[in-house]
Amino acid sequence: MTAVAELALLYLAPALVLWALLTRNCYPGERILERVQRAAAPPVAASPSPAARPPRPARRTTPRGSVLVAWSLAGRAPPA
After folding, report:
1. What is the pLDDT of residue 76?
2. For residue range 10-67, what is the model confidence (pLDDT) as tens digits?
3. What is the C-alpha separation between 26 and 22, in angstroms, rounded?
4. What whole-number distance in Å separates Cα of residue 66 and Cα of residue 69?
5. How far is CA 49 from the centre of its chain?
6. Do the beta carbons of residue 16 and residue 9 sit within 8 Å?
7. H, E, C per residue of 43-60
């Protein structure tokens, strides 16, 4: 083999090993990711009954975002 072909195989080796593992349904790092996910997940708490929930706040009636810009420009006449 030439030096270029050997160098190409060295670059492709990690991808080929990963491809071989994935074709056998072996997922490297899967257990570690599951442990991290379980550790980072907040504890599951029982949801309060509907009667114990506080009432929802009233919807905002003031315009926001692009509606605010349109609202502020609505009363102006076009420039002369």
Report:
1. 67
2. 999 999 999 999 999 988 889 998 999 888 888 777 776 767 777 778 777 777 788 8
3. 5
4. 5
5. 30
6. no
7. CCCCCCCCCCCCCCCCCC
Q: Give the model's pLDDT for residue 53.
A: 73
Kindly state the helix (H) or strand (E) to which residue 72 belongs, with its residue range: helix 66-73
| Cα 2 from Cα 24, distance rounded (Å) | 31
Please tell me the total number of residues recorded for the chain in this structure. Answer: 80
| Residue found under tokens 């899967």 | 30
CA distances from 10 to 4, 17, 21, 39, 77 (A): 10, 11, 18, 37, 71
Query: Is the pTM here over 0.70, yes or no?
Result: no
